[in-house]
Amino acid sequence: FFFQAEDGIRDAQESRGLGDVYKRQYQRRVHGEEYIGNSYYEGEFCMGLKSGQGIMKWVDGSMYDGQWKNDQFNGHGVYYFTNKNSYEGEWKDGLMHGQGTFCWSNGCKYI
Question: Is residue 53 pLDDT above 70, yes or no?
Fold first, then answer.
């Protein structure tokens, strides 16, 4: 399967003048649900991992609604803590990364 991509293995012999072409395995994205103990995920999966848009709800009441990649928060999302605080912004490899807003339950914000 050939297509243009930002990452992968470049295959110059197959480009046929269409720009950089990469040979990669086709990865199908599907929507589904997953129960992990008493926690619950609903959203997209790719190759069996949470990838794409999804919502995860933990048994303690915390919740993440946003983008995933390889079972980790990646991209834009909102995490709601059990104490009613929240963080909305960018994530990378499961950690807050880049711009975002942290809101405390008393109404104070850090941007």
Answer: yes
